[in-house]
Amino acid sequence: MIEFIYDMLYIAPLSLTAMLYWCGLFGVEEPTFLMYMAVLVPVFVLDLLVHLKARERMLVLGITGAVFVSVSFVVSRFWEDFYLSDHPWIIPLLIISVLSFLIGFAAANLTVFRIVVSLSLIVMLILSLEVIEYPAKKGVFAAFFFVLVCLSTEVHIRWKRFGDTNTKKHLVFTSLFIFAIVFTASRFNAPDKPYDWRLFKAIWSQVSETVGRLKFSIGPGNDMYIGFSDSGEIGSDVEKSDHPKPVLEVNVLSDINVPVNFTGNMYDSFDGHAWTEQKDPIANMRRMDALECLFSAKSGSEDYRDVIRDAAVNVKYVNAKTRYLFVASKLTDYSFLSSHTEITETSGVLTFDKHNPYRLEVKEQFYKLNTDSPAFYEYMSTDSVNTDEAWKSSLRTVGLGKLSDQFGYDQYLEYRESVKEKYCEDITLSSELKSKLAVLYDGARSDYEKLKRLEQALNKMKYTTDTEPIPEGVTNASEFLDYFLLEEKEGYCTHYATAFVLLARAEGLPARYAAGYRINIEKAGTYTVTSNMAHAWPEV
Question: How many Å apart are CA 174 and CA 164, to the nearest integer?
Fold first, then answer.
């Protein structure tokens, strides 16, 4: 009889705890007396059956059955309008009662069950902080009580004791202390929202950031991408990856509906196989390039906004292990939104002084060219009027009126001459190529129309990344043009960009080879730039 009492006193709290947890999970604010009895009666009866002999069990079952029949008779006799559909709480109550008893009984007798359920409750409580719906306060403390009792049970089972070694007896008294602690804690007011764990999140964020930066720093560099590499070499058999890596994340802040090139590197000299930067650098090239664009548009069109518009993007470095700051063409300004790093500009190429841009975020402001508008074509086909006053007006437009000593009209004229010297190399063409170009350019009214015809002609050629290496016999720009345009007649962006730059120079126009990433933008929003979007293009 004593063993039965200890068993009851141990199993009953576990079963009631399970019931309270279910109530908390299902949103039952205050369990009724009937719900408590619905759990305790099965616990009492079933546990009594376990401790009785066969004949006594039959007697208890008979009594229980008689009570059930009597209750059913009374309900049907004196409660004639009783219908189960009018009392939907009965079925959930029976389910909760059965589940609670089974959990309490299993927890009292099965070690594996205690461990599994306790770990599950701990995981549920952790997830409830952020992921799943926050459970009721009663359910939280019921879960804590259940876990602590199960932990205490495991300790008692494994604890070598002398004298009174009745485990159930010790657990009953231990459970009373656990109940007192949990009950006292439950009396305190709980916040309406989960604890935000701000300190621990800050620590975890800092640890993750440090580990991520370390992995980024010691990890391997990126593979050669189509169209972009540090070497400027025209490679062969460069294939796009089936699993491209995210490199940049571009958040477009203004209405841009044209492709945008983000330049990493630019070159001035070509030896037949690779582009290099050999000639003297030009100071403030990025700013002067944008100012010249604004100046030209204001001088050559009735409303310069038909030709160029202000645009802005935020560029975040996701997995770009590079020394280059990728910036939009016609860049007017940039600022760091995350950690600051020193930048060096050399002929318009911006590079980091000390480290790779781990999660660096930069806001870039630039001019967007409306290349698809009729006004742009008309503007490019007419001569603009270059005057000192018009240049000063452009400086005032971008807020640089007070810096005329650095960006004055004389500095602008010097800049133009520097661009011609750097990017207007004499190109000797073979007689066969000259003849083909004469036919192509016949009737063109402007340099811009010549370039558009050249663009269309190159677009008709075959694009492929499965190319042969450039023969070693090709030693200069003229030989490359003959090999690519007259013999091979296929290639990818680096081949076509190179050919366009060289043919523009052959017409006396300054042109350069640029490499970076090209993004097709349709509207404001966030765009992910992958390694397969690396590109090379000509700038004239």
Answer: 15
